[in-house]
Amino acid sequence: METKTITINGKEVTLCYCYATEINFAKLTDGENASVFIQETAKKIDALTKGDATAQPDIEKCILLILSAGLAYYHSKGEGCPIMDDDLLYTNDPTELYTALAQIVLLYGSFYKLLPGDEPKTKGKGSKGKN
């Protein structure tokens, strides 16, 4: 489980990425695959940062992904999640949504060892490895 604590609507919340996040998301979206959604959303967020205003991600599914990540963490601790969908639906600061999404993308990458620092090291041509 990979975790990150952020603030949403004035509430400190820990998000996590693990299999429970994916299962929660699938349940909340009638079977949507979290990995596919995250990869598509990451591309859209990247396009948005480059000025493409038409690359808006599906806000409803983004909210459900954030909730899935929060629910997964707090359920693992036997606690109630401090945020609800209303905290994201009626926020005064929409950048919090994108901050949370960006953190989930990073958590996803870290969980699946997709981040550049986590790539397996391979022997280059002519390197002497142990036999």
Model description:
This protein is mainly alpha-helical and 131 residues long. The protein has one domain. Helices cover 50% and strands 11% of the residues. A two-stranded antiparallel ribbon has the order 1-2. It is globular, with a radius of gyration of 17 Å. It starts with a strand and ends in a 20-residue tail after the last helix. Residues 118-131 have low confidence and may be disordered.
Distance between the termini: 34 Å
State the assembly state of the protein chains: single chain
**Sheet with the most strands, sense and barrel status:** 2 strands, antiparallel
- Strands in their spatial order, largest beta sheet: 1-2
What average pLDDT do the residues reach? 88
Using only C-alpha atoms, the radius of gyration works out to 17 Å
Structural domains: how many: 1
**Considering DSSP H and I runs of 4 or more, what fraction of the residues is helical?**
40-55%
Q: Detail the poorly predicted runs.
A: 118-131
Large-scale geometry? globular
> What string, H for helix and E for strand, traces the elements in order?
EEHHHHH
| Strand runs, count | 2
How would you classify the helix and strand content by structural class? Answer: mainly alpha
Strand content: 5-15%
Number of helices: 5
Key phrases:
131 residues, mainly alpha, two-stranded antiparallel sheet, 5 helices
Task: Summarize the model shown.
This protein is mainly α and 131 residues long. It is 50% helix and 11% strand.
Task: Show the helix and strand layout.
Blueprint: E1 2-8, E2 11-17, H1 19-28, H2 34-49, H3 59-76, H4 85-89, H5 95-111
Antiparallel strand pairs: 1-2
Helix pairs in contact: 1-3, 2-5, 3-5
